[in-house]
Batch of 4 targets.
Target 1
Amino acid sequence: MDTASPRTRMSLVGVVVIGCFMALFARLWYLQVMEAPRLQVQAIANRTRVVAVEAPRGRILDVNGKVLVDNRTSLAVTIDRAAFKKLPDQADLVNRLADVLTRYGTPTKVSSLEKRYADVQFNDLYPVPVATDVSEEVQWYLAEHADDFPTVGVERRSTRVYPYGAAAGNVLGYVGRITAEKLKVAEPGIDPDSGAVKSYQSDSTIGLAGVESTYEKDLRGTPGVEMIEVDSKNRPVGTSAYQAPKPGTDIQLHIDIDVQMRAEQSLQDKLLRLRGTNQRDGTLRNATAGSVVVMDPQTGGVVALATYPTYDPREFVNGISQERYDQLTDVDGVSALIDRSISGQYAPGSTFKLVTATAALSNGLITGGTSYNDQGVYTVGNPAQEFTNAGSVRNGTISLPTALTISSDVYFYWLGDRMDGSKLIQDTAAAYGFDKRTGIDLPNESSGYVLTPEEKKALKDKYPDSYSDGTWYTGDNVQLAVGQNVIVVTPLQLARAYAAFANGGTLYTPHVVWRLLRPKNSEVDPGGVISVIEPVVTGTVELPPDVRDPIVAGLSRVTTGLGTGSSAFIGFDQQAFPVVGKTGTAQVEGKADTSLFASYGPGLFPRYAVTAVMEESGFGAEASGEVVRHVYEILAGQTITDAAPASSGSSD
Amino acid sequence: MLPSSVSRHDSNRSRRDPTAPARHIDPLLMLSVAALSIVGIIAVYSATRGPGPTYSSSYLFKQTAFVGIGAGAFVIFSIVDYRKLHDWAWAFYGLTTLMLVLVISPLGSQSKGAQAWFALGPFQLQPAEFAKLSLIGALGFLLSEFRGDIDVRRLFSLLGVAGLPMILILVQPDLGLVLILTAIALAMLLVGGLPTKFIVVLTLVGLIGIFGALNSPVLKEYQINRLTAFANPEDKSNPAVYNIDQSQQAIATGGVTGEGLFNGPQTKLGFVPEQQTDFIFTAVAEQFGFVGAAIVLLLYGLLCYRIWRIAQIAKDSFGSYVCIGVLAMFAFSIFENVGMAMGIMPVTGIPLLLLSAGGSSTVTALAALGLVMSVHARRFQ
């Protein structure tokens, strides 16, 4: 071999070279033909980012089709965090951006930009919105000076808009960015047509209160999908596929915005007029809070649901500051974020006599004609315990209708005494829907309670420090008969009980939402009805004529003549629209009375049940009665009057 | 064989002279060189124009200029008798050695971690590329002088001549070029008659050297990354694995027929690092598919075959050795470069001659091929 010819060795070199080329061909075939499908998938995944495009939410309409919540396009300033991290002069950029935003109408602190930018909830893949709802001028300025603002962009997004301002804020609720915790547990809705899942992303909007929350699955739109092709530096270079977002389902409420605004306005006016005055016993009326419920007794549809104080959903549109949020939780000592109409719990006072009367009549304790001599005071037990009428008024010998009309407490103390040892009142209260949630389609409803002897004992056993006595005394039953001491109800429960009495005894689940509609620009059947929330019957109260008639006779005269509520209805045409109702004045230890008024109308063919409950406001007629009357004015199409100046009140 | 007394300077007679160099141009060599150079310009442009909408053409113009200069070098080296290189071998060798010394002095400039360049205005000169040619000349000279009779002393002189530029280039450092010089030297020594026992010894020493280098601090971190990436391609934390993955995905994206010129997404979006130089093959493979990439490999195969053939029919042993050196230079570059792009060789910074962007490598490659053409054209003189 040492002397082997150069030709032999050249052949050896040639063989090596041929071997190399064969290896290259084999590998090329393997990569481009055999392994190509697998590697191509990797390559596509590598250069494609799937981005969800948030869809506009469905609109919210009132019963007459007036738009209560709509959408508008707003502009948000974003920072591309992945690219921003590599910038040399980040602080300078943020300073200049804050200046520009402030100059063009969005006062912005550097710290707030930094806080939004640093929010770990945002994915680096998407530009982070650092300032929302900025002016067009900001967009133009940033477009003209794009070179000075690298990584800064402007995005168009859909934002809630409220044509009626703060009206019905407690019903509508508000939306906000989904929190990290909610993102983990949120169950997305399903698109009614395509069946697509309306999945959430880290910057998705979600309903946080009111129907925005309870109908989240319907209101939320179906996100679009954008497949963005990116280059090796993760910069978008084009869209490889796009599926447009689909707006969410519109929902139409039973709420009549005109009635709602009337109720809100009247409630607020009356509370503010009462505030700072004294009730008859000299207690200061703080008149801090109140609520009004208007229901359709035939369906359970909620026509108005007012609460005071309340909030303006517009404040939540671009995210609310913690400072402002804290303010809302303490408006003159009470929270504006609580809807008292569904979660406030109050002793019902004399409005509860409807239940006591029903219990006594149904069980044959009395008939409509059974009379009792009301001497202004009723004594029970040993040692003797005295219960009096308001002002210790003596009403003489009266039967049930009169006892209701003039609100004789003694007559009902007597009934309570006679039903002691039974649970007749509690059972009847349960039939009217007290002591448990109504199931209204709004969040955070309270259940109230109507204590039984067993429950009182159980409470004492469970909370020995808070309850000094677990024994059920006759006095407890006597107080229960007039809606005091061992019972609390929500204004909504009270309204539903009167609605059930009005329609002959059928208990409906209250609903603020009437039906679901397709978006107005839907491809199929625009604006068409997807589904109607049918009335749901949850129970019945047996109301044969010998039970119902004496009560109707008594309640019909409450708003007239000698009735306790008559002063509130002076000038209201009861011939055209008779109002059947009951005043209530619930005593609260150390505070002015809770003023209640529960009612329905018009008398023989009830279309509305209206209830008002006002805290620390005095007698039923003078505060709540007047607010209820104002609401009936608009329901009945009668002359609109203003809230009257506060008086010291006459009777319960 | 015809008498060599025929005058090479009598132009009047050369027209009818059947031994005249002009009558012995290798058309297949010409064809493959021209085709590969044009494919190179297109591939470099496609890999550097960017995703749009405005495109960069600076690489297009530069590479076209380099091919133009290289074509000039090709013509000059074809026309000039290759035996002149025999005469000038040591002057050329000395000059490039001097440049290799100067480039690691403060006169040279750094780029991508290697002190390998002279900055000349907008261009950069890489003297190590020229060292390939000067080594071919110097070894060709010595081997043709030794006439296959190589003892230990001569072996050491050969190793010394080959080792000097290698050591200077290792200082830069440019491992890829050292490997090419090694391939050139090995092939030339083999064909130049190195006794088998020396081949065995050299192989052993080489293996020990590689083993020692891997376990010593001589190699930089990125070099170790590249070697371990080759050994363990599933380790995604290794930055070199990203290169290899992107490269193979781009090649696979081409499929059988390719995505079409300027339509390769991985190329257009810049996913393959160093695509216009070390990974230019991926641009060809993605845009023109298996069909295009195989044609390019066949063109390279044709080129190598022609060089190999010329080595065999060369008139003298110097011409033969020179051709073997050029063959080794091309074959090793192709195998290593295309092999690393496809994941069957470790990543090393070696250009794919004629295709990769770069002035020094393109001009050197074309000059070397001109030299081969000269050997072919003068095989009867």
Target 2
Amino acid sequence: MLIPAIWVAALVFASELTLLSIGFTLTYLTAKIPNFAHGTYAGIGIYVSYTFAKIFNLSPYFGFPLAFLIGGLFSVIVYKIVIGALTNMGGGAIVLTISTLAIQIFLTGLIQIYAYWLRDRYSTYAMSFLLKQNDFKIGDFPGIFVVSLSLTIVSVISLHYMLTKTNIGVAMRATAEDPELASVLGININQIQLFSWFLTGGLACLAGAMIPLWFMSTPQSGAMIITSIMAGSLLGGFDSIYGAVVGGALVGLSEIMLTTWGQAIIGVWVGEYRPLVPMIFLVAVLLVEPDGLHGAYTKFVASETGSNLLKSIGLQKEEY
Amino acid sequence: MLQDVALGLLTSGVAVSGTARLIVDIAMYFGLFVIVAMALNFQYGNAGIPNMGCAVQVIMGGFTVSGITVRLMFTMAEAAGTELLPWANDFDWVYNNPSNVSTMNEFIGPRMSFGVSMLLFSLAVSLILGAVIGWVIALPAIRLRATYLMIVLITMADAAQIFGRNIPAISGGTLGMFIPNIYEWYPGDRTVLSAVITLLIGIISFFLFRTMLNSPYGRLMRAIRENEVTVGSVGKNVVGIRRNILMFASGITALSGTLLAFYFSYVVEANYQRAFWTYWPWLMLILGGPGNNAGTFLGCALIVAMRRVIIVNKWFLQAVFFFPIAYFESILLGVLLIAVIMFRPNGLIPEKLLYIPGVNYTKMVNEEVKIDWRNAPKARGGSSGIGGIMSAFGGGKKEEES
């Protein structure tokens, strides 16, 4: 194999985390709240994959479109029943955030019950599993490596195309910027909100469906991954999708690579502290530059040396 | 039934059982949760600080007992001439823990003053350590948006658990640690005594919070909750005040962890999960009504009673469900939280106005609502009208116009 197994793991995790961070940031842009339930959509995706692999005896990859749809559906339901209603009632940011926490608790409970039901009904152990043997191989590479990387790259490029070139993407950006002004211009905010919640939920569930093909999964893993998602999104700056791409990839890579190098250099016990890596990122970003990479980039471009440097390599400063 | 509880309190050797045991259990958990929920009410209900890290502060109370008090007890007992198995390194610390603890229990038996002083010592240390940990975890985000603070605090609970799980010197790692029974000198049922002490500390902290709320500082807190820019513009250090409130409430929250450790006589990090010590107190607070201690008491009593009754009767309820009833807990918690937020945003008991000595605040505010203040006469005596409110927010500053 050309690439060591640990780099495969790191890249797979980074691409999954990138997709999740993009969704988290999109929600933050449209609803202005951190959606704590975002990781739990990934938990739903995990069980879609499991159902396809173990119950239907198909390749889990066939479940990906369904995972996208189911995640979107859950997300839309959450928006329709809870978030939208609370926003109309005039709930503040803190109340909305608490309600997303409640949704996370509720959905985690549902996933646990589903896993238990699978065990009861089909006698398969759905509480803790790995689907590596259901994967295919392309040459020396495991299929998930190719699929996750290409899916993420395709999603990022098509998201970029959608947000900048299509009408609905421009409408989404306008709604995120100023909902009232957007509605004056004839944009149906409600539909745009629904669409963006569908998109974020679908992306999260799609990313979740890829997780069990390489990583150990339990009903709790969706809820556990939220720290990494928030760290990636915060590292990119909470209000920039391109920042989220870079941030998610960086946090995902470093979570696995730093732990591995730490185990090699310091000792095996470092592995236990893996969940601390995204927390260190969170704290460091908030202490050093609360606006994340996007804020740092904006500051750099605005400064004298930064704009000179950009001119010297032939780039124009973006006008906001 | 009630006589049984009283008997457990007074007579020796009578262990409370049956329904009386359930009452003691509910009282104990009510005391523990009411301390956490009141501190939360102090922070979120009155000052608008969304402290999602209650679990960290509670775990700090538990770690204080297992990491500091037990070591102090062993040292003192050895100084008094009691033979203990070695406990210096990590392995001995965990491996010899049960036998050392039973030796300690014999040591505490005839020495009431030792047990009481150890309880007071742990409470004092956990108060300080809780305040310190409150300062540390608030450090990255206290200056920033409230949502950032929530994100940082909510992740810190996991961090505290990871440290507790992997460093055996703190609380014995995954195995947990037994704690010497500091109520060993007491002839009756120790759970009853423990519940009484917890309720007592709950009452003390209630009066502490009430006094603080009714002081000028309390008005300052409410002013920060309503509009921090205004408070900053009249020369108050908003970030400093927020930090002080968070530290004070964190210290009080840590007391509850200490009391829990002595109640169980056992500390393990898994007992201090985020779901248990952060989400349930938040539900109690929101159900009862933020910004109001009576509501917190009511919410706490309702939720604790419901939870304990479900747990005690779970074998009867299990027949109804096709899945283990433990999973039902998170469904219940989520649904209740969303339902309360959506259908009763102000909680069961709405918030009351603060008490200001010498000023009929309620009447003043009601007048303000009725009168169009642009046309109202400027001087309405004393400290009423818009100037009165401003002086109230300013924390006792003299009015300029009078």
Target 3
Amino acid sequence: MTRARGFITIVSGLPRSGTSLVMQMLQAGGMPVVTDERRTADPDNPRGYFEDERVKHLRDDASWLAHAAGHAVKVIHMLLQDLPLEHDYRVLFVERDPAEVIRSQSVMLRRRGRPGAGLPDDRLREVFAQQVAAVRRHLAVHPCFRVLDVRYADVVGDPAGESARIGAFLGGGLDLSAMATAVDPALWRNRASSEG
Amino acid sequence: MTSGAVFGPPPILFVLRRNATATVRCASSSVYDPAMMGRPARRLLILGWDAADWIVLRALLDRGAMPTLARVIRSGVTGDLSTLEPKLSPLLWTSVATGRTADRHGILNFVEPEPSGAGLRLSSSTSRRTRALWNMCTQAGLTCNVVSWYATHPAEPVRGVVVSNLLMEGAPASARAGWPLPPGCVHPAERAEEIASRRVHPAAVSAKVLLELVPQMGRLGRDHPTVELLARLIAQCLSVHQVACHLLATGDRWDCTMIFQEAIDTVGHHFMQYRAPRPAHVSPEDHRLFGGVMDAIYRLHDRMLGELLRAAGDDVTLMLLSDHGFHSGDERPVTATMTPEQRAATEAAWHRSEGILVVHGPGIAPGGTVRGATLLDIAPTALTLLGLPVGQDMDGRVLTEAIDQAASVRTIPTWEDAEGDAGMHPADLRQDPFEAHDAIRQLIDLGYMADLPEDRQEQIELVRRETEFNRAVSLLHRGRAADAAQIMEPLVAGHPGESRYVLVLARALMMAGRPLDCAAEATRLLARAPGNAEALLLRAAARAQAGDGAASDADLDAIPRREADRPAIALAIADVRAVRGQWDEAARMYRKAIGHPATAGPAHVGMARVALARAAWERAAEHCLDAMEQRFRLPEAHFLLGVALAWMEEPAQAAQSLEMLLRLEPGWIMAHRFLAAIAREQGDMDRAGAHEARVAHLSAASSIEPDARETLMPATDAAQWAARHAAGTPGRAS
């Protein structure tokens, strides 16, 4: 089923925007995900990160993507521009209320004991918005990318509807019911409130 | 922004020279007239020659070696163009284009972090925070071409053509290899190919051109490293020239074209040391081989100027300028034995404070001289020549004395929020590169991006520090000492061993009215570097201001003799002696500095202070005039001249000199005080009231109490002058 897809599914967005949740939905729906599982579940992402360390080094070596067609790969927004243009990509670009994103990042930084940007929230929000706009321009001018915007609040609010939309964008063949079930609104809502 | 000032002719300087007590006819009037919207220049060509210097130019002009420039000067206006601090080209040329100081326009270094976190890049157009001339032209519906101006990459989508300063990026080793332009180098992008084809590869620079620079090149061979270096620098120069000529000659309509040539500076940093007179560290052989390079570069620029003017057509108005001068005599720094790092830190020492300005063509008064101009005046003047309004928030003034007709100097509050297309990048591209880097840091700390290599992080942190340092220097030089100190304090705390940082902080603290803190910083530096003359000087000045005269004297006495003999140090010592009231010793040190071109102007100002302290009013006036002959833009010379004339019972002339000062430095409180006193004595209560209101406003706004720039002594106290008759001692300071 998934081998039939000639494109690579990319799940992207700002860190803490809900990319792990969407990866989890895709995996539940039957799409294999590319992950080295080095970053294991923790209080910030109780169901795991679905990441692969090689993504961070795409600029130096992207050869492994040749084998990623039919798979889902999580690539944060700033690294989308490192994807080689010779593949076809379907990008699920996850968006979440920027204030929630920054709050969640702050909580995660505290847990990791790292300082982060050191910018006021409003400045950080503006810089992230600029980064996202630049990334979107990059996606728009290169025909190898097709993009579906996915709103985190919609996923949590209407898992079935969003699963169907995502499934259609990816050409069908996914278990939409399993995708929707993978979203545990209580968990995600609790997370949002604990970050608040 | 000040506008409408007209300096001469006849200049106050020379009239006073003929008769110090004669009537001074210093023309001054406002020419602002909103009804007149004339456009003095039909087309304006702004040509930047980085580091072009009058001393070298005048020698060449005298020999007839610059025929085009000579012709332009004969029918144009010339003058010195004062630079800004710090004297770094990206900052200065962006000030030219925006009419703002570097702390306001935001280009504060040669390089900046890549927003993607990939490392460093040349400072870019997306980091500029204010509109440049090309944006204002676009906004007004005029067409503006820009070629190779600093910090213009990526090219902005203006009305016209922009060829960014990355024109020569990525030149391959072979002239036959592919050489694509970097993305974003040319706007509109469809003209990239025709622009790229005008570039000259270093290997394609002809032997004829190189032989003009190094006549004995045959002995060295084309592949000699020095010849190869020259070929690279000349290729850049010729490429910019060919692209510019192409744009001027294509027949496309244009209103303003701005071209930047850097070769006089880049070649100068390598080859000025070889020029006559031969410095001791240069071998006779190198002097023979390379001694003619600099003059040849200037001659090449003269030929290119002729070609540009022919391509532009007869109706073009030219503004030719440099961002600073370049030492060519005894003041040349010796960098031959330095490490590359030391050399990089010393490069700015080659730069002289005075650049060149030549304005010529339709709309320009022939044969005149512009006095007191700075780089900040170029944008307002260009706007007026193009018939556009000047932003009241610009830092310079319109050089109306260069314009030959009653040009209307129109103003608007600002260009920054004018509606309509200004040909700027989209808002999301215009980023603060350091904030963008900080956001990347956040992604790294969250574990979503790979950490930067340690050496790259160190580079970026170094660039951040130097950028903040430059911001502080810029603020310091426009009188915002407290803001400068606020920036420098954490820098010094993090890098207490960096003497430049400590000295700038100490200077900022001194100017901000914190002499004790200044002395403390100087003391810390002296603990590491005993005998550091600048630190001793700052501490001496701080202690003098704090009332500890004996300690101040001890610091001055501790300055090593060889340092004290240097003109700049002698001048600074004299200034402190003057503050201490040690007039004989001050005069002795001022005389050491007076014979040196770089310090002669301020030294004459110092001698004027000494003369005023001794109630020698005419001698004080003479020294002020001597100072202005050296450098017109010495605000204190105008102030002290006004004071001297007032004590000479020439209140009208005194007022003119003080008014002149206020055009150069509108915030000079003591000038307003004196003008108020003069007006009151002349019975002009309205004018007196206006100046007194200004004093109150400036005093409330100033963080410096009293303004540290202003000379404090009985003679400069307006109240004492006003009371002189009552005291029964007319003509004598108490």
Target 4
Amino acid sequence: MSDLKFSEKGMKKYEWLLTRYPDKQAVLLPALRIAEAEFGELGIPEMKYVADLMGISPARVYGVVTFYTHFRRAGTGTFHIQVCSTLSCALRGSQELADHIAKRLGIEMGETTEDGMFSVSKVECLGSCDTAPMFQLNDNYHENLTLDDVDRIIEDCKKESARGGAR
Amino acid sequence: MSFRKIFTPHLGDPNCHTLEFYEKTGGYEGARKALRDWEPDALIDEVKASSLRGRGGAGFPTGVKWGFVPKQTDKLKYLAVNADESEPGTFKDRVLMERMPHQLIEGIIISCWAVGIHSAYIYIRGEYVHAYQRLVAACAEAYDKGILGSKVLGHDFHLDITVHRGAGAYICGEETGMLTSLEGERGQPKLKPPFPAIEGLFGCPTVVNNVETISNLPYIMEIGAEGYKKIGPESSPGPKLYCVSGHVEKPGTYELPMGVNLLELINDHCGGVWKGRKLKAVIPGGSSAHVLSADECDVAMDIESLAAAGSMLGSAGVIVMDDQTCMVNALLNVMKFYHHESCGQCTPCREGTGWLEKIVHRIAYGHGKLEDLDRIDTVCDRMVGKTICVLADAAAFPAWSFTQKFRDEFIHCIEHGGSPEVKRRHPDRIGGGLHV
């Protein structure tokens, strides 16, 4: 048995959410966000926990999680770089940006570094077309990027990791 | 009447997102006026009279949409604010939510009063974490000051707003897909009818409006329908946010009257095409709009004018392409997007978007055939109007217009071993299979 459990704060938030919707199932996406924040990622045990908590089938939770692209799935690196690669960004150099990041980290798009520190993926439009090229690093947007900016940001992540920080 | 900006005049102030700032600049006066002076039915008529049309993409008259909600019903009614903003080239709602969240909340109060709604949800795309935090903070401020809750602005009217995060899916910008997602399911669209106004969220009558649409309402309360109608063209009036990206000197969100000339927008407001280059093409309303060639760009940016020009205003996401852009590669990028984002429930869309990507891919990568251009037409014919939602149409429109208007470039790629851009970047992949 897994010993996953929401913290008191997480549980309070979950219970508050139940009061905001007339139908329990509607709390699934927000509940998954709590799980993501508390457990760090959504793997099978985390999805199973949410399913049990809400009294819905694990298969249904899995179906929902995998339909969307933005949940933090199991095995994602500490720092997840999501490079916007849709047209407006592509017109202003997102491919060069993605190539540079991949080369710099020694991995291909969609992969995670061996030490588990970085994941990098190409994603579709992030709604930041006027500041292209850009990427989302965990929760934050980094915009109007040059290749030098990328090097600096990657170094900053490494420093943050050495200090014991994560997200 | 000179044009007054209503969305962007205060963006220079770092505190414009706060309640204190918003109230200092006249905020919530429109909502007070609505609750104090307007009977709900008269308010719906006023919004109808203003000719405000939806800013999310479809351009449906807002007041008319409200009027579809049954007056006599035992069911609860809901407002679902569409803040999923996922059409490529569109980023205006993000600005409004990050910088002017109280203007949205005020608009929500006005629309809920008009339609008799006590529960509103803002469905915001999952990637917009900062905007989400701003909205949550703004709602907390509003509850704290009695602007939301059991007695809205001291009136006998209760209203709750819940901010709900999506999780990354273009299709949740489609209204029924959004409602399905809000209910905690995979965000797959549903057949209409029933329309959301009759049977929407949790099976109840639901108004679905875009963030920018709702954010217009305080201004309509201020100047009245008559005043509002005088801004821009009569059939689709009002202040408008244009999102300009791609090959211009100054990309950004520009607030101008509806109907601004596209060339004026690019040249006078955005500093022209970047690097002193020439204009080749513009997608005027998000990537699902038909592309305009440079000689078609002397056009007014409003719903009717762009429809007459064979394209659409859509979400007003203007993507500018310079004369060095490879149109085959640009279309490949767009096709990849729609293939990735198809929710998969309708065969013509699921298969069609895949076929379109594969065909354009092989043209770009040097093993296309001339028949492929006809094949694209055939695939598009089998997609448009044959699915539950319009994602299939949204993929077919650019496929059609790119290959028709820039046919020479497609033929050149077919006859000369692929796109010059691909040859430069991936010489090893020319002639190869699909790389996705």
